């Protein structure tokens, strides 16, 4: 890639660990309905697939069931009131964002998480005034793996997509990054399904831990940052 101009992140499972809050919200809702709790491991494995997947997990219903939308909406409303309670940046990400800020490199978010939840989470974590472009599904016609959101983010930040890195924990993230012409990195520490092999996603880089990202960024910018 050419000299790095910006870094973009997927949100859940990449930049921040939201599984603890989803775990609390889902099990509280299940308890209200007299249903058994689900394990933290099961919740974590389904977070990247969104609230619909968590509704299926907890209530054993599919979208075709009459009660599905009601439970889904209850889950979303409950989550909206429990944002950034136990959600945290993944290990190493605070130092990475500090380093990007110190070197004047823009960083942003391109996520399939709706704006209704994304902006309050960023606010709650103290990131809202630091982040550059934030692109949610509300802002695009096509979700990832379509590159629309990433290209929109680069346009807003005034950077060349081919000089950007996109970090994500799902195959669609890597596909979106490639479709946008960006370099890509897999957050293998994120919400990877047990049946998935991120090493087969053909990303440019694989991050075993969150604190692997900063050394990578220093390598990518070696000689270009004085």
From TrEMBL:
It comes from the Bacteria. NCBIfam families: HAD-SF-IA-v1 (TIGR01549), HAD-SF-IA-v3 (TIGR01509). GO terms for molecular function: metal ion binding; phosphoglycolate phosphatase activity. Keywords: Carbohydrate metabolism, Hydrolase, Magnesium, Metal-binding. Signal peptide: none annotated. GO terms for cellular component: cytosol. The lineage of its organism: Bacteria, Pseudomonadati, Pseudomonadota, Gammaproteobacteria, Oceanospirillales. The keyword Hydrolase applies. PANTHER family: PHOSPHOGLYCOLATE PHOSPHATASE. This is HAD-IA family hydrolase. It comes from Alloalcanivorax xenomutans. GO terms for biological process: DNA repair. Pfam families: HAD_2.
